[in-house]
Amino acid sequence: MNKNGVLKKILYINLSTKSYRVINRKELFEKNIGGTGVASKLLLEECPKNINPFDKESPIIFAIGNLTGVFPLASKTVSMFKSPLTKNLGESHAGGRSAIAMRMADIGAIVIKGKSDIPVYLAIYGNKVYFRDATTLWGMQSSEVVGKIIRNKEEYAGLRTIMRIGRAGEEKIPYASVITETYRHFGRLGLGAVFGSKKLKGIMIAGKHEIPIDNSKEYRKIYDEIFHQATSSEMMKKYHDLGTPQNVLPLNELKALPTRNLQSSYFETAEGISGESFAMEHLGRRLACSHCPVACIHIAALREPYDNEHYFYKTSMISYDYELIYSLGTMLGISKPKNVLRLIQEVEETGIDGMSTGVILAWATEASKKGIITEQQLDGVSLEWGNYKEYVKAIEKIIEKPNEFYEDLSLGVYHTSRKYGGEDFALTFGRNEMPGYHTGPAAYVGFMIGARHSHLDSGGYSIDQKILTKQNLQPEDIVDKLMEEECWRQILSSLVICFFARKIYSEEIVTRSLKVLGLEYDMDEIKKLGEKIYKRKMEFKFREGFDFQNIEIPDRIIETKSPTIEFDKKFLKKALKYAEEKFKNNDVINK
Length: 591
Fold this sequence. Notes:
- The chain is an alpha+beta fold.
- 42% of the residues lie in helices and 15% in strands.
- It has three domains: 9-206, Aldehyde Ferredoxin Oxidoreductase,  A, domain 1 (4-Layer Sandwich); 243-407, Aldehyde Ferredoxin Oxidoreductase Protein, subunit A, domain 2, CATH 1.10.569; 432-584, Orthogonal Bundle (Aldehyde Ferredoxin Oxidoreductase Protein, subunit A, domain 3).
- The strands form four sheets. Strands 2-1-6-3-4-5 form a six-stranded mixed β-sheet. The chain has a six-stranded mixed β-sheet with strand order 8-7-12-9-10-11, sandwiched between helices. Strands 13-14-15 form a three-stranded antiparallel β-sheet.
- Helix 2 (35-46) packs parallel to helix 23.
- The mean pLDDT is 94.
């Protein structure tokens, strides 16, 4: 079958020389199907061993999948880089328009190296790259204003993506994000800081490429099946109605909602910042990523008076989701939705990762209360649970770094707790701040052994909820389940399928969809490819110094009871040992 619809072009950009080239590597997209598969291969090719993440030769990689622009919900872009936060694998996924824009520009992947002598942003039209002077954009207070300026200057409105960093990226805060289309992010692990180290303020991508499909009858049949499930199934309806904030009340009821730095797993006023509450009181509109019919992005309208004006108001549109309500709400003891939104707005303006920031501020609050941090070190900030104004001040000081303490805090929880103390309540795994799930041991083992140390790696919280009522479940059982799921997620992230649609894109749908493009894979071959990609990512991690035996387990996750089964450090260490042996024996998925 004709393979004209398969991706093939990789755009290589050198910021030092202001040059670029396009190379045809169709076989790379045929063998790895795109996204995570292609990006992990390019990372091993392009990233020198043990390189400083801020070195000019440290690469930034973007990749999309062969289903992008062809089938619904294949709407993510994968970025890979060496993380300045963990000093290891950095991987981040973002929705919005970025994937479709790359496909319309006829680009399957982008590799960016070098360092500009002045601030620049890239304007990519098809296979042509323009290096725009961004000196006047560097240092702007608002990342949103930067996006507006680029929108007004560049062409192809409606067909483009605009990525940019805020002040956090410019300051090389190692958990700085890249913002795309205002409401989506390449978050976690510090891609924004790598942008900043290269003096790269942003990227605009646009094009008008058409995608040829030969077997139109079969294509339409599969498309309709996917579209029908996405628009009529109960599993997707919840994402449209409430979005991920629908998790707040169920997790709180389970006593699995991390609260005040996980001193508790139950937030007494969770109802006020639940998905239902936000939807009734603050929902302004819903948005969808390009080529997605679900519209899970929920935007709140925050209406506030201007200073010293009683009858004039400004309305800010702020995107919210479960992870931000957790990290900037329950973890900080903030119970009013408007105050959560104000903190989210501060995070958006500065371009700092909201999840890491919330966990860091929660640790700092507890450390302050225990006398580990002094008033002098806090530099006029009084960290108190629920006091959002003081947390806004603290975020500004993390960006500005006025003293040694904030310089340290800007490097994350792992670094700061090792210097000042408080390791036992420093909620970090693989040096990445924890997500919002205290559901049981499977979630924590997932944070530890997943390639990104993220809940999105293997969905351990789901395993906790479904099977951990079995009292005889062993650590080995958990690891087997997690690794099986992790391998399958490599397929989804290589096709850049939104993980919300993981039940729609079954093994059968994936193989049939690829066949339409001329890529013949049976189900067994797809599973083996997922395992191969997971191993490749771990190969990079091991190369850069990752060691299962060096993963530190904070006491707090043991002390605060989980809703499933009791577990201790011995249980978790047994799981880590077993995971290590599986990799050594080349037996990630039990044969």
